[in-house]
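Lecture notes, unit on protein representations.

Consider one protein chain, 106 amino acids long.
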Amino acid sequence: MGFVSNITRKIAFWNYPRTSWQWDVLCVLILVFIFLTPKSWFANPTYDPHTTVTLSLPVELVSPQADNAEIGRRAKELVNRPNGEVIGIKPVVEGGKLTQYKVDIR
């Protein structure tokens, strides 16, 4: 048990000198991680400008008679994408009454 705890302690506190083979293995592992890790692991889809965002926009925020340009402008403001592209606007009717708009923005 002393052998395993000794190795674990050396790895945790990294007591190996730079000229050892353990140091070389660590450097290779770091380089492999840097160059072979997919970019998607670090991408945040919230801030990716190419990701489509679907927004539920209540009718209270825009008038029921608002045109598509006004709905798109209001949706872009809410998701903070002033240069975004509105892909689609779908009215949602519940109980015979317009309740919200589903807006897809890229």
